[in-house]
Amino acid sequence: MFQGFSPQTIDFMWNLRLNNQKTWFEANKEAFLQDFQAPMKALGREVFERITADYGDHGFIHKVSRIYKDARRVRDGEPYRCNLWFSIERPSEEWTSTPVFWFELAPEGWSYGLGYYQARPITMAKLRARIDRDPKKFETLIAPLAKQDEFILDGDAYKRKKEAPTPKTSDWYNQKSFSLIHRQQNGEELFSPKLADRLVSGYQFLMPYYDYFVTLDTDPDPGAV
Question: Is 134 helix (H, G, I), strand (E, B) or coil?
Fold first, then answer.
């Protein structure tokens, strides 16, 4: 069971940022395994098990990122990531363009939420088409977001605004990709088992949005209608 991260977790991330090279990492690998990887895996496993206990029909899997960068992307001479994350998602060959729940821990702070790493243009076109067909339904879906302060809509927007069917749908209508995200500086909550409770509660709140967005790819191509 997840018992919390520790101050040593934060120290390791900062030290890795300052000493991002194989010799240092190999000399401090035990600290990585014990202070960083182990609690991240424990947190991911506990949250996943609690979510799937309530949403077992969703076909979720969970993944924990590797500390090693893809060799094809080591262009800065730094072979290791200074952050780790876990995700809860459905299996997909195109994981970057499907909605996922995630938690990420970096030296400066942590974040969690629901969203796309990079939604495909066709996915966002299908979202706009859905909004066009029934803007009131989408307004009802997003209404709870205005009554909470845990998650905000985040992502790149079009510089030239598209005309949305209603003012309340405009921000969503003009996203190139998006996440519903909570960001927080590292602090005492990170060192507590209660962090898992917060993530589970947040993902439960976000589940109706996941259910809405995950089916977008089954919608007809709006350009072919």
Answer: coil
Nearest CA-CA partner of 208 in 130, 127, 114: 114
Residue 170 and residue 164 in contact, taking contact as beta carbons nearer than 8 Å: yes
Q: Which residues are bridge partners to 115 per DSSP? A: 100, 179
Question: Rounded CA gap, 146 and 166, in Å?
Answer: 16
Q: Is the dihedral of CA 175, 178, 182, 184 positive or negative?
A: negative
Whether 39 and 87 have beta carbons less than 8 Å apart is answered as no
Tokens 């859905």 — which residue? 130
Residue with tokens 């590797």: 66
Q: What is the pLDDT of residues 32-84, one digit of tens each?
A: 999 999 999 999 999 999 999 999 999 999 999 999 987 655 566 789 999 99
pLDDT in tens, 86-130: 999 999 877 667 999 999 999 999 999 999 999 999 999 999 999
Q: Give the tokens for residue 220.
A: 């007809």
Query: pTM for the whole thing?
Result: 0.93
